[in-house]
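Support request, please re-run this one:
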Amino acid sequence: MSDQLTLCPKCRARLVHVNIGDGVVDTYCEESGGPTSSGLNTNPPRRSEMLIEENDRVLGLDLAKLTGYCVSDGTHFESGVWDFGSIRDAVKSRHNGHMFEALLNELDKIHNLDAIVYERAHHRGGAATRIALGLVSVTLMYAAQYGIRVFDVHTATLKKWATGDYRAGKLAMMAFASEKTGREITSDDEGDAICVAEYGRSVLKEEG
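Re-run finished. Output below.
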């Protein structure tokens, strides 16, 4: 990726030019986050600075081999776990990336996402780290392509917000998620994603 000193004709923010292969260059507005001209994006980009409303939808992600996800509008919750397995070679890595992007797109089409929030990846090494960092990259690229607000949250910050304890365990986080959704959450991956989605909503409300 290389930055060039050109400005968006609409808002005068800096444009970022990305070589996506085969001689094709995509151009993104740094302010809106969406492409200004590309055959990849046929939909108009959303405003990444859009203020959250009661019925706006936030996708929370706990990115890992077992990726927890939750779409929340504060009242309704769609959540679960995706299993991306372990990475053994480059082909598997590319397959995970394409599959994850397709899942993001499916949720976005159903819920018309306004923001994506993910728990910050832990760098423990090995396949787990490669998977997590790869999924973070796909998340950022997808959000940029469609102009969706995106940010992350540190695990300790998330635990403190949800339970009042920076070192809260999995059971405490699942209990918070169960209380929010009104159903028993038995997966810590799903539970964390629910917490992330609700944390994201709280941050955006405060900013509004």
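The helical segments are 90-111, 126-146, 155-163, 170-181, 188-207. The longest strand covers residues 14-21.
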